[in-house]
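Why show two proteins at once? Because comparison is the fastest way to build intuition. When a single record is shown, students tend to memorize it. When two are placed side by side, the eye starts asking what differs. So, the first record is below.
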Amino acid sequence: MRGFSRKVAVLIALFLLVFSQGFSFSAVDDKEDLAVLTDGFAVAMSKKDKAWMDVNFTPECVTYVPNGQTLDRQTTIHAFTGGVYYITKASASNKAFMVAGIGAGGSADYTVEGTLSDGNDISGTYKLTFKFKKGVAGWKISEILIHGE
């Protein structure tokens, strides 16, 4: 009986170790997915990629811009694909994320080169804060807050 108890205890310990590591790997994988998403947004802005934004923004995605306006999903896609912002180059750095179940938040510094539709230069580095939601298709951007330069 003693050998059986010892085997059960070892099996339980192994199960708990594997089970807890699975959650740990999942959180790391989620943060890597969010980093890829924020990098993808930089590329999509510079390539004016409507299809990428359409796939990677939730239906209720909103963007808060420095002038105080709130943009819905379609207006956000229009703005970043040449309707307002003419971004020729963009990159994300200093990315940080916090995952809580099917929701996440994060931020990144975006260095951009480009102009507004009226020709005013907007080149510089901007802090963007994101909210993300995870669904069956993976992580999507649900909110973007653009801080001033």
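Second record. Ask yourself what differs from the first in the token line.
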Amino acid sequence: MKAILRMLVVICLCAKTYTLSYGDAVPSPDGRHNAIYLGSQVRIDDYPVKVLTVITMAWTGDGNTLVIVEHLAGGSQLSLIHLVDGQWKRFEIEPPLDRYDDISVVALGVCKDSVRVGYKLRQHKDQDFRFYVCSFDVDSATQTRSNEVTRKLNAASYEKLPQLTKQTSIRKLY
């Protein structure tokens, strides 16, 4: 349990901090693509992709996937916008649990061609709340998950976990 919390804190604290605003451009690391945040859409190389309210975004190191964290009622979620057969496709990356009431991205590490994400989750079952933290890797091309770890938390530990905000860091691991 302590190891997963340490990993989440390290990912959150070790990266560059920036603020994402309407009209901001985020070029891919290789310079091939440019993503512009325009509120309800992200425009990548003149190709519009509908999104929810974007909290933060970054490119994978290979420049083929835009990683975004979007605001949801009650939290946030990870989405990947990946180049597939010449078109940009958006994929929502949800936590492994089947049912949850609230989810929030609490940590994000962006690699060359994958992403490491940490979520906190809340479930309401039988007049009781259950709290979890999970982390896993996602292959940006196939959206395949690996290295999944899920742990149950008490309410106090759950509340202490940070949520990604527009001022939060993304750890670039490439």
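One difference worth noting in the second protein: The chain has two helices and 14 strands.
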